Description:
The chain contains nine helices and two strands, in the order ααααααααββα. By secondary structure, the protein is mainly alpha-helical. It has one domain. It has a two-stranded antiparallel ribbon with strand order 1-2. A hairpin with a 2-residue loop joins strand 1 and strand 2. The model is unreliable at 196-205 (pLDDT under 50).
Amino acid sequence: MRYEQLKNDYSRLLETLDLNSLKKNKDVIRSCTKRICNNMQRYQNVSDMMPPQLIGIIHLLEASLNFKTHLHNGDPLTARTVHVPKGRPPIGEPPFTWEASAVDALKLKLNDLRKEGDYLDFGELEQWLYFLERYNGMGYRKRGINSPYLWAGTNHYTRGKYVADGRFDPYAVSKQIGAVPIIIEMIEQGVIETNIEGLKNEKKD
């Protein structure tokens, strides 16, 4: 599905996001945000295609901020990727630098979207969420579940998780904080200079 087909869905979820649902994981959210910010220079080095904050969030979700692994999926940089997407980067020889692999990962996803007619400028928060969901995969949407990659740690996710490539467990619960709580924290800290239109809850610490 293309961005314009899903934009209103992201807007709806943002409008109904309960900021109070983030409180129980506030320490983890702040810790993750701090670690991303500490690495911001490296994300800026590969950020010609998108905001460095977004790259940092992907790095957190895919690789737990480990610079010895591929941004594609967290596989070690000592070889090409073995998990989806396999065989990346296709050019060069391992061990790869984190930067070279990151550029390949981001170009790969952006090119896939452009082939479908999606040209993102990342000027809307909904575009961030769309890119993140496409980066991880749209399998949750097909099952009627809000992706934990985005919404884990919020009122929009309860359970259901892919525990391996192509293997879904409807009772598994993601233990990883999703992208949205990190984005909210970044906005509150001024790391992301934007407003989330439609959020009905007042900010509460």
